[in-house]
Amino acid sequence: MSASQQEITPGEFFHIYNRAIGNEVLFHTDADYDHWFQLIKKFLLPVCEIHAYCILPNHYHLLVRIQDHTASADFSKKMSDAANAFVKWKNLKYGRKGGLFMTPYKRKLLQNEEYLIWCLWYIHRNPFHHQYAEDWNSWRYSSYQAYIIDKPTLVTKAFFLELFGGKEKFIRHHMVQGEEIEIIKKVALE
After folding, report:
1. Which of 15, 45, 162, 187 lies deepest, with the highest CB count within 10 Å?
2. What are the tens digits of pLDDT across the range 137-189?
3. CATH code (residue 126)
4. CA torsion, points 161, 167, 173, 178, in degrees to nearest 10?
5. H/E segment holding residue 111
6. What domain count does the chain have?
7. Which domain holds residue 26?
8. Domain Transposase IS200-like: where (predicted)?
9. Distance between CA atoms of 161 and 19, rounded to whole angstroms?
């Protein structure tokens, strides 16, 4: 089943992602990012927990757990509502017309702990994979920072911090995983 057709199942974790049509820039300014976050809070938090996110200029990633009481159609409608509200706002702000996001959004069921951990790392790695940041801490629009600060955020942190055995092990896993990828790349090129 394709990533855009997997049924949204209550209680399950999903990797949700989408990009701009033709790699157009979605987010030009801090205000654009902030508006997207407000829409995520308004539309998605009632139907899912957000465990990770990375918002880049031309695409986004979310790692969510669908609330037990949420029907598949409810989540899909809320995703559509958030995207449509952002497009209308951006079209008005920038004097543009037409769609902005690829449709439909993509979704991948995360069926086991190993895949969950990999997906969290993959989402947090996106800013420097795409060369928007030089390290884990320097991209403002990634939930990595939410995990290492001790104040409330829109991210549900307890599940993954418990899974890793605390904040220090969470940080260490990200660093070690990144180092291993760099070693593999070097060996593959030799």
Report:
1. 15
2. 889 999 999 999 988 899 999 999 999 999 999 998 888 765 555 543 443 34
3. 3.30.70.1290
4. 110
5. none
6. 1
7. 13-189
8. 9-126
9. 29
